[in-house]
Amino acid sequence: MSEIDTSTLYDKVAFAKLLDLRREFAEGGVSRMVLDARPELTNNFENVHGGVIMTMLDMAMSSAALSKADFKKAVITVDMSTHFLHPGKGRLVAHGRAVGGGKSICFCEAHIEDAAGQRVASAMGAFKYVDPR
């Protein structure tokens, strides 16, 4: 049986398409995601909604974990801790990085910056590697 390539699975994530959350980079345990804020993604203070922020962080970390495994596995989030630091507005960039783990779990961290370089949020997470079949 041939190995599965999970590098294109992100293109099938309907929720990411709905948000227009784009994966710009995922390689060697590092990833970058980009989102341009728009009114339907904001809260009552006209900041990007916390759920969208958490989704960006989760997707950045999972992309980093997948790339660390050379896109031969899939991942599921088993734990995530998020810190909201500054309101998110405009173009947001999430940076993810795999920082440890083993064959079955990957530990990651991520942060989001706005266009001015202000840190909007950060997270740590654990991702379980699973068979993509």
Keywords:
about 130 residues, alpha+beta, single chain, Thiol Ester Dehydrase, Chain A
Question: Your description of this structure?
Answer:
The protein is an alpha+beta fold. The chain has one domain (9-130): Hotdog Thioesterase (Thiol Ester Dehydrase, Chain A), CATH 3.10.129. The protein is 19% helix and 42% strand. The chain contains two helices and six strands, in the order H-E-E-H-E-E-E-E. The protein has a six-stranded antiparallel beta sheet. The longest helix has 19 residues, at 50-68. The chain is globular and about 45 Å long.
SSE map:
Layout: H1 14-19, E1 22-27, E2 30-36, H2 50-68, E3 74-84, E4 91-101, E5 105-113, E6 119-130
Antiparallel strand pairs: 1-2, 2-4, 3-6, 4-5, 5-6
Number of alpha- plus pi-helical segments: 2
- For the CA atoms, what is the radius of gyration? 14 Å
Give the terminus-to-terminus CA distance: 11 Å
CATH architecture label: Roll
User: What's the CATH topology label?
Assistant: Thiol Ester Dehydrase, Chain A
Q: What's this, in brief?
A:
The chain is of the alpha+beta class and 133 residues long.
